[in-house]
Structure formats: C-alpha cells, structure tokens
Amino acid sequence: MKKYAMVVDSSVCIDCKGCMVSCKVQNNVPRGFWRNWIKQTTPDFSLGKLTRTHFQPGGCMQCDVPTCVQACPSGATFKDQETGIVHVNEPLCIGCGNCVRACPYGARFRHPEKRVPDKCDFCFSAGRLARGIPPACVDTCPTKARVFGDLNDPDSEVSRLLREKPTVRVTSQNIDTQPNLYYVTATEPADWPGDVEFPQAYSVMASLVNPLVKVAVGLSALGVAGMWAKQAFAPDPEDDDQGPEARHPESTASKQD
Amino acid sequence: MSEKMIHRHDKLSIFIHWFNAFCWIALLLTGLGLIKNEQLNPLGAWWPNLMRSLFGGGENLMAVHQYLGLIWAGVFVLYILLRPRETWLFLKEVFRVSPSRDMTWFMKMNLKMTLGKKGLKRFGMTPDMPPQGFYNFGQKLFAQATVLGGIAIVVTGVIMFLSPLMLDNPDPAAWSRTIHYLVVGLVTAGMLVHIYMAAISKEEKPAFKSMFTGTVPEHYAKHHHQLWYEEVAAGEKKAEG
User: Fold this and answer.
1) Which residues of chain A neighbour B201 with C-beta distances below 8 Å?
2) What is the ipTM of this complex?
3) Domain ranges in chain A?
4) Rounded distance between C-alpha atoms, residue A80 and residue B95, angstroms
5) Closest residue, chain B, to A231 (C-alpha)
6) Nearest 5°: phi and psi at B224?
7) What is the topology classification, in CATH, of domain A4-197?
8) Residue A49 contacts residue A72 (beta carbons within 8 Å)
C-alpha cells in the first residue's frame, strides 16, 4: 500500500510555469483549463529594493479528508486506498458538478467535452507511475521545487524531507481536509482557501430528503407490519366470509363489507 | 367453481403491470446500489458493495440501471402511443376522486385494517364502506403516485443520463438526482402498502389473482367495487336486452 504525496519547496519556485505546461501536454488538458497552478503573493512595492514575490506551486492535494469524495453520491470520485490518489471513475459519473464545488482548492474542473470532472492524479492514468517515472510537473521543474514520492516508504525523498524539515499544509477554514501536499518551512499566499461549501442540491439530499425518505418508508413498513400482525393474530371474524365457501352474497348484496 | 367471473384486466394490462413491477424492483435495487456515500446510502455500505461486485463494478451497475430505466420508460411511451384511449380512460378513472365518499372510505379503511371492525365501532362508525368504482380510493392514490412519480422519475433520470453527454450546466443533473431519490422513496413507501394489500392481505386475494387470470369473482366485484360492478351489470343487461 502506497501513500503518494508531494512536498513543495515554494521558496525555490521561479514561476517558470514549466509544471503547468508539461501537465497540460502529458494529460491533454483542454484549452483554458489547468490541473495545477502557481499562485503568487501581491508584491509590496513600498519595500523598494526588498520588494519580492513568493510563488506557490500547487495542484490536487489528494486529501485524507477529501470533501470532493464526500460530495459524490455514487462513489464515482473516490480515494484509492492502494495509492492514496483521488480518482474519477468517469463512466460512473453523471457530471453533476458536486465535487468541483466541494473542493476548496479549486483543483477540479468540469471537462468541457467529457462533461465529467478532471483533476490531477499524479499522472497515474497517463501511465507514468506504472513506468516508474514521477509526474510530469515534478520531472519538468528546473529548480526541483516539487518533490514526489511515497510517504509509506521511509527511504523516499518525501519521507526524508518531512522528517528533516518543518512543513506546513494549506487547509480550508471550516474543514481540515488533511492534504497530502506539504510546503517546506512556510509558504505564501496563505489566505486561501476559504470554507468548504457543499452544493445545495447535495445538502438538501443529505439533510432533508434522505431523512424524509427514511421516515416515509419506515412509517409505511410499520403500518404494513401492523396490518399483518392484525391479520395474523386478531383477524376480524367476518373476514372468513371472503372464502367462497362461507359466503352469503344475497344477505350483503347492497352493502359493502 | 360455479362462481361467475367478471372480466377485469386484459392481457396487455397484465403484461404492463408485471413488466412495471419487474422494472421497478430491479431499478430500485440497482439504484440503491448506486448510492455509495456514507451520508446518503439508506441501507449502509454493504448493499452498494454487494451490487457492485455482482455487476462487476459501479460503471456496469450504472449502465444496467440507465438502460433498464430507458427501456422501462420506452415501453410505457409505446403503450401510450398504441393505446391512447385506454391510457386516457385509466387516467380519468384514477384522478377522478369523490371527496366525501373517498375520504370516508380512506379513513375507515385505515382503521379497519389496523384496529379491525371493533375499532371502527369504538369510533362510532359502522363497518360498511362507501361504494367504490373500478379502483378503490387507496388504489387510486397509489396509481396517482405511480403516474406522477413515474413522470418525475423518468424526466430526472433522462436529465442525469444526458448530463455527461450533452448538458453543459451540471446543476440540472445535481437537482435531478435529489428529486429522483425523493420521488422513488415516496413511491416505494406506497409500494410497500400496495404489495401488502395485494399479495398478503386476505381481503384482496381475488384482486391479486386477477393480475394473472384477468378476471374476478362476481361477489368480490360486488363487495369491493360496487359502482364498477353496477356499471358492468348494466352493460351486460343492455347487451342482452
């Protein structure tokens, strides 16, 4: 069992966008969409010579508490326990967009042609991991800001970095998503993401429709059980006249029983 | 058996009933298997897991559910196109409700089924029921639920089917699923009563048999569907005279 993760040293990122481009090429990411990104701080020019911008490479964090998976009713979006990667099972997906909205990082988009979510899977479906080569973004990075590996392997570079250096994670305000993307020492910008927001269609289904359906079916089952018990243990004596033998059609001709 | 039998259902009605029953059960079971989410699955994780291993993966389960649903809806559309008059008469019968007669019937029937005739007397009511037509009010209610529910289920189902194929806005699919689940749940609640009444309760045994043979005994028609029986009897008299 593996647990793939990424450790990023954002202080060495030079914002060359090589990771974004190589990802797009490797995964045929459609025009106008990106599976990964480089965020940046707004420079404070009042500092004069000391003015600097901090660049922060990112992508799907393959969270241990994936809110995208929580928002998916069918399990089309799932976290593979063998690798720790969050995948999309496209034929099982109806393209409802729940997961895209429930991701606080904006790491997903709805593919304009396939109309199902698209996201970083550490180049798993591109076949790179099976061939033993790191994800395209990691391979391309000229300053080696992005480091990829297996956290369950104590000898991997990500494990070594986590052991030897202090790291931080970027998490949502209201839910700790426990991301598997670590930043060495510190990172900026840190004022994102905001709260995880589950789409209304999902919240209504989870908190209103589901209990309502359970109560309705439960009450109905209870009623049926009551009628069944009544018939089994305390039948009306007249019920016998339903059998053809003991019937008197003449005497009840004008009355319903 | 010398009991006179009265024609109640033709072969096509019987076929469409059991076709509907089969599709409903199969779609309900596969549909429940598609809800694999701790917050949502009403039966727990074991059911979606079982269905997925039976069908060889969630994507196959989804395909079976979708295509069976489309066949189910398609057969009904075909029926409506082939039998527009029968469909119209059925809808007219099912949605025509007499408030005073049917509400009294409904209240009394509920008491009678749970508390018995003694229970009815305790509330100061006589055990006789207001006369009913081809369908009693309980049957009408469930038929209304299946007709309106069926339309909602098919429309939302088709939206979900089309969503990854051609809908650029994901919201209709998201809301369709919520509505789909709600309506199926409510109709299922009614279906439990429907199955009990037909297959388990002694009173409606002849009606259950008629869903195979097409006919009911005369005394049953007279007692349970008096208004319909009178219509049939009058029609027969006319034909004779």
Assistant:
1) 227, 231
2) 0.90
3) 4-197, 202-237
4) 51
5) B201
6) -100, -25
7) Alpha-Beta Plaits (3.30.70)
8) no
